[in-house]
Structures are given as C-alpha cells and as structure tokens.
C-alpha cells in the first residue's frame, strides 16, 4: 500500500509506552500507515506521495489539551484583553477606547486582569469602571475566571443592591454595606451569564479559538464547559459546520449551575461516549471549589497568606454525591473541578462511593486539576484508578502567588513525579483561557517547575520531557477512552500530528518554552502551517 504523505529524516516521537523514537512516518489517507527508518518509509512512496523532509525536527502525536474552555477562550478574543495592563489607570483607558466605539446600553467586556500585578495592588471597583462609562454595562473578569468586577450600570441591570443577600457559593463584595462591584465565584458566574454573548458571536469566537489551538499543535480538546446546555449545542454545531479543527470531547456541565446541566444530561438518557471521533459527549462535571490563583480553592489548612481563609466550596459532600452518583450509575464518566486538597478529598470520596456501588474497572473517572494533592490523596487516586488532569502551565504563570499562598504545599501541587512513580496515568490540560493554550509552556513547566520570574515551585515534582509529552498526547486519549484511536504514532491510528521547529529531545530544558509549532495535521490533512520566514 502506498502512502499519501511521508515525513522523513526526523525525530519521530511515538509517545508509546516504551518511548520509541523513529526517523520517519508514512500516512495513508486519514491514518498512520507505518513508522520506521527513512529508507523503510521511502519504499511507501509513489509519484503521488507528498514527501516532507523533517530535517531533524520533532514529529509528535498532535497535542491533546485535556481541559480547556473553547467558548470562553473564543469570546475573550472578542472582548478587551487586559492581561498586559499593569495599572488600573491603563485598564480604564483601554476600556474607554472600546466604549467609544460601542453603542450605549451594550456590554463592554474585558478579561485577564490580576490585582497582584497592578501598580495599585488592589482589585477593580465599580467606581473605577464608572469612570469608563455609566451608560454601558461593563464587566471585567479576573485572569482566574472566577472573579469579576462590574460597574454601577451592570449592578443595576442585574437588580443588585446593598440589600441583596449573597448567592450560595458566591459573594457580592461590600464596603460598609455598599456593593463595590467585585463579584466572587457564584456571584461572578451569575453576572457573566447575564453578560452573555449572542449565538453568532459565540460561533465566531469558537472558530477563532479553534484556529489558535491549531496554531499551537492541538488536535484534540476536552472542553471543560461554558454557560448552560446551549454551550454544548454551539460546540456540536460549530464542529458540524467545520469551524473546529480539533476532535472534541465535551464535558457535560456548566460554569454556572452545573448540577442542573448534569441532571438534564443524566435524565435525557444519554451517557458518556455518545457521538463520533470528532464530537463526543464526555464526563458529567460539576464544580467543588474555587481557583488556585485567586486564591479561592478549598484547602484543608488555611492559606499561608491569610490564616483566616481556606477558600470557597460550591457544595458539600452530600450534594456532590447527589449530583454525581446518579451519573455514575447510568454509565457516565464523572469528574469535578477540584483544586484545593479538601476538594480533591471530597471528589475522591464520591468516586470511592461510586465504585462501592458498582466496580466498573474501566470507569476512568477524572479529577479536573487536582491542584494540592499530598501523598495520602495520591494513594487514593492510585487505588480508585482515577485520572487526574493537572495544568502545569499554572506553575509558570501563577507559581509566585502559590509560594505566597500555600507555602510548602507547592511540593504537592500538581504532583506529576508522584504520578509517574506510582504509574498513575495523568493527562495535561491548559485550562485555557485561564492560562496560555501553548502546550510547550505546559511541557516547560512540567519539566522545570519554575515560575515566570524563575523561582522554583516544588521541583521535587519535575518530570522528563518524554513523560510530559506522553501526558499531553497518549494520556488525553486515555482519559477519553480513545487511546486505541489516537495519542501515539502507531499504524492505524489517526494521522493527527504536530511538527515542531527543532528537536524537542535535544532542546536545553530551560528553552523548551521557546519551541514553536511548524505544522499541525488532523486526519492526514494540514490544518496549520507556519509561514516561511522572509529571506531577508
Ligand atoms: Zn477549567
């Protein structure tokens, strides 16, 4: 059988169990035909075969981002990006520019601010945002996606006053009784729902998001949810219309009131696995606690930075059981956002109870994030055969804050080395747009465990490049029960591939994050190719 495309003279990293590296690979249509030496593979060529010379560069299975929010990522691109702003003043200026071109009464949406990196070293308030406009509702989301600030107009539209009690699992921040506009957790989620984008905007956002993911070598995404069941429909529609160039595994949940979305899914009679290899229903997912960088995640011991605070719980153990056990009983994979060690403990308790009910050995129940995970919890992950989904790029972006908030607990934060030692499969996700979608930053952080400012963040948990690659490829496929279809470079698997601009195995570890994606291939077709640089 002749090949449609061959890749020769390269570093073909198969990401298989024994870490095999070949020189060349042949593709026939949408599948991998063969791996081997350049000589072997050239024998598969005829006059119609496209020959790509890798010149020593790496060819890998396409990256599988096991936890990302496509809709949020995409709609963020439509809003005002505040990630680089370093003062409240410059945030106000940037929002004013958007206000000038936005009809009054329409939403102005910004995202990505972090009070810790602002000159003023404080959160935004409604008084800041009222300087931008009092005729537009304004929402500015913090980088964590769990906290936002709105102006007076938005508070008014939501009907919130100083008399309004806090919602369950959320806080309307107050100063002397008066609302400041700062909204935490459920209070934020509720407001974000009100500031919803239209279907046309979401579709455009999804297409932009998918393009960016392809530019980063990502061929599969486990979508971790947007707002409500319509989010799932939008994703399916975008996939059907060819706007998305990744295989999607879609968690059934929502950033706002996930229990009711899970309940609707379970009652509809479907279960995990429905769909095909381009769009598939994933696990039932709820939120247990807050974010790692806020910090609002639920920890066993108080934060080092604040002895009176140990985070926010969205639900107690009974509620968690009540939301997820029916899903398990009906054949769903179950998962939850569990960041702090108390939340990870709760999710493991629910998984243990599920398995006591019926010991399906292939359940592959997941733990989204599993941030602070000390040895006793790693032990329980091992014995339940659950699959953690860590986000090492957080260590790079938020590592300095972690040292401040959690102290020595950074040694148990995303304990990748413990997972490797205990033979626990774990799949890496970016949690983009919370942090960069770039898998090379995730791999860099998993290997080096240094923050952006170069501080070590639990380097006892560093893993090798090969281990990080396998966690970003094969393990994602394992976490969606698709490792027979994709995730390694072996004959008959889908030709979902990424070519890097150099050899990743020979790259000095501190330069891993500089590596760029040169080409992305999905189903045997090129979906991204980096422009050749000018000869000048
Ligand atoms: Zn997430």
TrEMBL record:
Protein name listed in UniProt: Amidohydrolase
Secreted keyword on record: no
Gene3D superfamilies: 3.10.310.70, Metal-dependent hydrolases, Urease, subunit C, domain 1
Keyword Hydrolase: yes
Signal sequence annotation: none
Cited InterPro entries: Amidohydro_3 (IPR013108), Metal-dep_hydrolase_composite (IPR011059), Metal_Hydrolase (IPR032466), YtcJ-like (IPR033932)
Matches recorded under Pfam families: Amidohydro_3
Source organism of this protein record: Halobacillus faecis
Domain called Amidohydrolase: residue spans: 50-528
GO MF annotations, alphabetized: hydrolase activity, acting on carbon-nitrogen (but not peptide) bonds
Annotated keywords: Hydrolase
Top-rank taxon, per record: Bacteria
SUPFAM superfamilies recorded: Composite domain of metallo-dependent hydrolases, Metallo-dependent hydrolases
CDD domains: YtcJ_like
């Amino acid at each position: 059988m002749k090949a449609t495309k061959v890749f020769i003279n390269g570093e073909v990293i198969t990401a298989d169990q024994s870490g095999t590296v070949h020189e060349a690979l042949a593709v026939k249509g949408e599948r991998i035909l063969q791996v081997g030496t350049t000589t072997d593979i050239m024998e598969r060529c005829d006059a119609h075969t496209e020959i790509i010379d890798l010149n020593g560069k790496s060819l890998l299975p396409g990256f599988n981002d096991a936890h990302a929010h496509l809709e949020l990522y995409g709609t963020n691109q439509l809003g005002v990006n505040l990630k680089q702003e370093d003062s409240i003043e410059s945030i106000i200026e940037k929002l004013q520019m958007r206000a000038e071109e936005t009809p009054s009464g329409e939403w102005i949406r910004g995202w990505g601010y972090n009070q810790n990196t602002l000159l003023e070293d404080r959160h935004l308030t409604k008084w800041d945002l009222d300087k931008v406009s009092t005729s537009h509702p304004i929402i500015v989301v913090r980088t964590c996606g769990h906290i936002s600030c709105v102006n007076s107009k938005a508070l008014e539209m939501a009907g919130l006053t100083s008399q309004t009690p806090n919602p369950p699992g959320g806080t309307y921040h107050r100063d002397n009784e008066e609302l400041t506009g700062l909204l935490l957790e459920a209070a934020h989620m509720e407001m974000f729902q009100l500031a919803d984008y239209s279907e046309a905007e979401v579709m455009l956002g999804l297409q932009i998001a998918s393009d960016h993911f392809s530019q980063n070598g990502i061929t599969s995404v486990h979508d971790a949810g947007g707002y409500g069941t319509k989010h799932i429909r939008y994703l399916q529609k975008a996939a059907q219309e060819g706007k998305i160039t990744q295989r999607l595994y879609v968690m059934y949940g929502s950033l706002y009131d996930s229990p009711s979305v899970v309940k609707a899914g379970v009652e509809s009679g479907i279960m995990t696995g429905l769909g095909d290899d381009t769009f598939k229903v994933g696990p039932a997912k709820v939120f247990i606690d807050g974010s790692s960088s806020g910090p609002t995640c639920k920890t066993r011991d108080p934060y080092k930075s604040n002895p009176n605070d140990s985070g926010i719980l969205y639900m107690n153990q009974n509620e968690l059981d009540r939301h997820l056990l029916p899903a398990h009983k009906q054949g769903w994979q179950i998962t939850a956002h569990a960041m702090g060690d108390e939340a990870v403990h709760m999710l493991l308790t629910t998984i243990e109870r599920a398995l006591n009910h019926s010991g399906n050995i292939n359940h592959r129940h997941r733990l989204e994030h599993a941030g602070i995970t000390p040895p006793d919890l790693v032990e329980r992950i091992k014995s339940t055969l659950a699959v953690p989904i860590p986000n090492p790029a957080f260590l790079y972006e938020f590592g300095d804050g972690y040292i401040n908030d959690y102290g020595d607990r950074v040694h148990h934060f995303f304990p990748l080395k413990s997972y490797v030692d205990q033979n626990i499969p774990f799949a890496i996700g970016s949690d983009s747009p919370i942090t960069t979608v770039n898998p090379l930053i995730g791999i860099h952080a998993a290997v080096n465990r240094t923050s952006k400012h170069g501080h070590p963040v639990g380097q006892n948990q560093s893993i090798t490049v090969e281990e990080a690659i396998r966690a970003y490829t094969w393990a994602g496929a394992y976490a969606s029960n698709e490792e027979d279809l994709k995730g390694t470079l072996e004959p008959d698997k889908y030709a979902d591939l990424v070519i890097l601009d150099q050899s990743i195995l020979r790259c000095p570890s501190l330069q891993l994050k500089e590596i760029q994606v040169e080409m992305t291939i999905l189903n045997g077709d090129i979906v991204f190719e980096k422009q050749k640089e000018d000869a000048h």
